[in-house]
Design a protein that fits this description.
heterodimer, A: about 625 residues, alpha+beta, six-stranded mixed sheet, about 35% helix, B: about 475 residues, mainly alpha, two-stranded antiparallel sheet, 2 strands, globular
Chain lengths: ~625, ~475
């Protein structure tokens, strides 16, 4: 064959064009595989399904280990419309115990994009929610007969007893704000909304885990990635033990039935809250699950405000329960001593001002003054203290000293209880009065604060804390609901003693006065032989009927419980405050109520205060 | 056997091994690594591979003369088979190219390649053959176009396009480079014209695509004029009337009254052609006539390209072309394949995820991952290194085939050799190009890699016949 050299050169054209093409392809591979990072990210979101593993939320016990809150498994039935073709509807309805009509109705609702904006025939749609294990058992057994249908497990909160709604609180779906605040949460997560559920959210929630699954182009799951090697298991939440005594709690709730008010009891030596009830209350089981929203609205609209935890959110004039604080200040400041008598002529009458009192022997020193709750004694005390110019230099200084004592006893500021929403109450200072009276004021102007009226207000928790402070003779531990976190530590402030500015000896005098009040004073009805209870009534003046209050502790020596009772518009302190306080202390100290006390409890329980007539 | 080119056989075996591993990777289902069972795609492919080795051995043992003797008989028989195939096929996935023989389906189009190559080799190796002879040129072109047409009738436009690779062989055998250039430039016109058909110039009436292509035609015309004749003024005349005309009309359309400037440019192109014919008559230089033909042909091609695009191509091919040209951007629709294929390859990174560790291909994100898109598996599991290795292996194979073809003493063997390497080149160019999102998605396999007995045997026969011819050169 003769060679054609001109044509033979064309092999180079062909070879070079091959090399150019391959070079372009290699450059392209270089761009795709080495330069650009995007494709790797696409690939991950393509093929990996990161499925969250939800931890079980910690459960809650009372102080004696009685279960209060636990998790209940509920089941959601879901289905993927495109996969659920050819399902035997009749069989399905029978297995789930629903009617054909209900099935058709649900199907129509689900595929209606107005009612269900997230509808897609390719993704899981919720068919029924929160079925119990029994309701869903048969369905689950026959699940293989219903292609495209799935059963999804979830847990809901459940409560052993219809009690303690305010302190336990509840959980609800996270709000966009929660998500913004803490990136731990994603849409659809649950978070504690109020009560312990909210304040111990981080302890209770545990740590979410993650399961990495592979899915194919149609979204079907193809098993675990690397056999679950990279899965992160979820960590269950910590269980909580509360200082709350559930029996005490239920008794207090019973006693406050048909009344508005609060009962708070504290273990003085630890600051643990034994009982914290706000009335009216509600059954926490109402707030479980899907009806939470509507029930919440219903409760929020109630004029008696059952959602309000009055124990920490209600600020009331403390009335005569305030008097022991005054006695402590006067004794400590040397305004009076144990024997200093003040006159009382059915009231404090001075310079044209009269503060009424009731009939009792006079003049009298501090102990009988506390026992009889003599208004005049404390008015004189404050009048002398604010007027002691030689000691303090000015009314302002005297007032500031007074205020500092009050703050040291836990008034005027939030105590720092481990519940959200605590109010601080009000303890006025000198600036406050300077402003209110343009600098022209004296002891007489502010005289009513000495008997817990006027500007001073306090929460029932602060009043109970006063009881604990007197019981401890001069110190308290910040009251708290949670006693123990399983596998965790409660905050150090809940174990630190806080000393007031008053000496122990003066506390002994006041404790004796409160004991005398029970023995033969205003709290006579609280006397139980052998328990050595101490108490102080309070009858707080109000625009409507007086509020009935009580603050006490017992036994006098080595006290185990301090309690505050506040019943709105309950009248005399002795009417509601004393018997309720007595019953609570008796129940806690003896474990059971005596037959007489049981009768009393029943009587109190059935008493009803008609709030309709008072302006709210 | 000693004279057989073992280099090529070793490359062939390497490609087969890499191909089988890729099929394992691509067809692997989680938890079912049964690569050796005939129930799995990998197992079946292993059987096809072994059978093709047997086939290759048999071919090497046969007398090389039978290919020359039987070339036309094979061709006639295969054209008949191609003709009847659509009537015997059951139309899987809209394609009528498969016939069932017992439990296996075979695709005759794959075997028609070596048959056509043999027929072309026999025809072109006639001593009197020359590409300058119109009759010879028409017959050799017809030998290529007949199987193309028959395969288009099977709705396998992709497989049919492979036969255009034979023009590369014809180029080596003396077809004018001008024709090859025209073919390639037509594709360029087509792509630019379609790609920018919907984009308008600032006047709002002129499509950018046609405008640009018409100016390109003028530029190429001027370029050729500059090469094939010595005078400068005709070059400036062509440039002047085209650029001047375009500038004037564009200005008029933009500032005075909008009209489709491309229509005006068609007239200018017509005037250019007339000028060239006048010049040819005046100067008597043959090249000028061809240049005028080129200009006219280009303009007519462009004018009809849109028509062809709208009427002749199948709807799915139109969509695929649109996607490749960036006209349609719908990741879950037509662009899905290419997009997923790029994701799979891109996620492989430098060294890849390792054998059977790819997630994209494993989880069936990439469609046809063990056939047309098998290169994705290599890209994902073997990374940049593996992909480049495969590309280089193919390059070495084709370069080796060029070398072997050139050393043939018989024209028959050389033509056949060039046919083989042109087909490999075309498959490599289109298949990897489409996987990388550079060429239109034309469903043709990657030789020795894509799953399937027909294509594997087709390529093996193609190659081994050449090795047999080479062995007895």
């Amino acid at each position: 064959m003769k060679r054609n050299y001109r044509l033979e050169k064309r092999k180079y054209v062909i070879a070079i064009s091959l090399i150019i093409v391959v070079a372009i392809y290699i450059a392209r591979l270089f761009m795709l595989q080495i330069v650009s990072d995007d494709y790797k990210k696409y690939a991950d979101s393509n093929a990996f399904l990161h499925r969250t593993q939800y931890p079980s939320r910690g459960v809650i016990y009372d102080r004696d280990g009685r279960l209060m809150v636990y998790n209940q498994t509920a089941y959601d039935v879901t289905f993927v419309p495109t996969e659920a073709k050819g399902v035997d509807t009749l069989n399905l309805c029978r297995s789930l115990g629903i009617t054909r009509e209900f099935f058709n109705k649900r199907m129509k609702e689900i595929s209606n994009r107005r009612l269900n904006p997230g509808y897609s025939p390719y993704t899981n749609q919720t068919f029924m929610t929160q079925l119990s294990a029994e309701e869903c058992g048969m369905f689950q057994e026959k699940l293989f007969e219903f292609p495209g249908f799935h059963v999804q497990r979830r847990t809901i909160r459940q409560y052993m007893q219809p009690t303690s709604a305010h302190i336990l609180g509840d959980i609800g779906e996270v709000s966009p704000r929660d998500i913004k605040k803490d990136p731990y949460y994603v849409q659809g997560d649950y978070i504690g909304k109020v009560g312990v559920e909210a304040s111990y959210e981080e302890e209770l929630r545990g740590q979410k885990g993650e399961e990495i699954l592979l899915r194919d182009a149609r979204g079907r799951l193809k098993g675990r990635y690397k056999g679950g090697k990279y899965d992160i298991p979820s960590t269950p939440g910590h269980n909580l033990t509360l200082g709350i005594d559930m029996r005490l709690q239920m008794l207090a709730e019973r006693l406050l039935q048909n009344k508005v008010g609060s009962v708070v009891a504290i273990e003085p030596s630890t600051g643990e809250i034994l009982c914290m009830v706000s009335a009216p209350t509600f059954d926490p089981r109402m707030m479980v699950g899907r009806q939470r929203g509507s029930k919440h609205i219903q409760l929020a609209r109630d004029p008696l405000k059952p959602l309000l935890n009055r124990s920490i959110m209600g600020v009331y004039p403390p009335g005569s329960t305030f008097k022991p604080t005054q006695a402590l200040i006067f004794l400590q400041e040397g305004i009076i001593n144990k024997a200093t008598p003040y006159p009382c002529s059915r009231g404090f009458i001075h310079a044209g001002l009269r503060v009424g009192c009731h009939g009792h022997p006079a003049p009298l020193p501090i102990i009988p003054a506390l026992a009889t709750s003599c208004n005049s004694f404390f008015c004189w005390g404050l009048y002398h203290m604010i007027g002691a110019r030689r000691k303090y230099g000015s009314v302002q200084n005297a007032m500031s000293t007074w205020r500092d004592y009050m703050v040291s006893m836990g008034y005027g500021y939030k105590l720092g209880v481990d519940l959200p929403g605590e109010k601080r109450g009000m303890i006025p200072n000198a600036e406050y009065y300077d402003k209110a009276y343009r600098g022209s004021w004296n002891g007489l102007t502010i005289i009513s604060i000495s008997i817990g009226q006027g500007e001073v207000t306090a929460t029932p928790l602060q009043i109970a804390n006063l009881g604990a402070t007197i019981a401890n003779r001069g110190w308290y531990i910040t009251p708290h609901i949670v006693k123990e976190i399983e596998g965790g530590q409660i905050k150090p402030i809940y174990s630190q003693k806080k000393h007031t500015m008053v000496d122990k000896a003066n506390y002994e005098i006041v404790a004796e006065g409160m004991r005398q009040a029970v023995v033969g004073g205003t709290c006579r009805r609280a006397e139980i032989a052998g328990l050595d209870l101490c108490g102080k009534t309070g009858t707080a003046q109000n625009r409507g009927r007086d509020h009935s209050a009580f603050m006490g502790f017992g036994p006098k020596d080595n006290p185990k419980i301090a309690v505050a009772v506040y019943v709105e518009n309950g009248g005399w302190g002795a009417t509601y405050g004393v018997p309720i306080g007595k019953l609570i202390m008796e129940k806690y100290l003896t474990g059971e109520l005596s037959p007489e006390s049981q009768a009393l409890a029943k009587e109190i329980q059935n008493r009803k205060i008609n709030y309709g007539i008072y302006k709210r | 056997m000693r004279s057989v080119d073992w280099t090529t056989i070793i490359i062939y075996l390497l490609l087969l091994a890499a191909g089988w591993l890729s099929v394992c990777g691509a067809s692997y289902e989680y938890g079912q690594p049964d690569f050796f069972s005939f129930n799995s795609r990998a197992g079946k492919q292993l059987v096809w591979i072994n059978l093709s080795l047997v086939l290759g051995f048999v071919i090497l043992k046969l007398d090389e003369k039978i290919y020359d003797w039987l070339a036309y008989i094979f061709y006639a028989f295969m054209m008949l088979v191609l003709f009847v195939t659509p009537f015997m096929s059951d139309g899987i996935k809209g394609s009528y190219s498969w016939i069932k023989l017992g439990s296996v389906s075979i695709q005759p189009a794959e075997f028609a390649k070596f048959v056509t190559a043999l027929a072309l080799a026999k025809f072109i190796s006639r001593p009197s053959f020359t590409m300058r002879n119109a009759r010879d040129a028409i017959i050799s072109t017809s030998l290529i176009l007949l199987p193309m047409l028959l395969i288009i009738m099977q709705r396998e436009t992709g497989s049919a396009l492979v036969y255009s690779a034979f023009f590369l062989m014809l180029y080596r055998e003396g077809m004018s480079g001008f024709i090859l250039f025209s073919g390639i430039i037509s594709v360029v016109y087509f792509v630019i014209g379609i790609r920018f058909a919907e984009v308008m110039m600032p006047d709002g009436a002129t499509p950018v695509g046609e405008y640009a292509v018409l100016l390109l035609i003028a530029a190429i015309t001027a370029f050729f004029l500059n090469i094939y004749q010595k005078k400068k003024w005709p070059v400036f005349t062509v440039l002047g009337i085209n650029i001047g005309g375009a500038a004037l009309m564009t200005a008029w359309s933009t500032y005075v009254s909008p009209f489709d400037v491309s229509h005006g440019l068609y007239i200018v192109a017509g005037l250019t052609t007339l000028f060239l014919i006048w010049l040819w008559l005046k100067e008597r230089i043959g090249s000028i006539f061809y240049i005028s033909l080129f200009t006219l042909g280009s303009v007519l091609f462009l004018y009809s390209a849109d028509y062809a695009f709208e009427r002749i191509l199948e709807p799915h091919q139109k969509v695929r072309i649109n996607v490749v040209l960036g006209l349609e951007d719908d990741p879950s629709g037509a662009g899905y394949n290419v997009n997923q294929s790029k994701i799979a390859i891109g996620s492989g990174g430098f060294a890849g995820k390792g054998f059977l560790a790819g997630t994209q291909t494993k989880l069936k994100y990439v469609p046809e991952q063990d056939t047309d898109f098998i290169f994705c598996t290599i890209g994902e599991e073997q990374g940049f290194l593996g992909s480049v290795a495969v590309l280089i292996l193919f390059t070495i194979l084709i370069l080796r085939l060029i070398y072997l073809s050139e050393r043939q003493r018989s024209r028959f063997a050389r033509v056949y050799g060039y046919s083989v390497l042109s087909i490999f080149f075309f498959h490599l160019f289109i298949n990897i190009g489409m996987v990388l999102g550079l060429t239109p998605v034309i469903g043709i396999p990657l030789p020795f890699f894509s799953y399937g007995g027909s294509s594997l045997w087709g390529f093996s026969i193609l190659l081994f016949i050449f090795l047999r011819l080479d062995a007895s050169r």
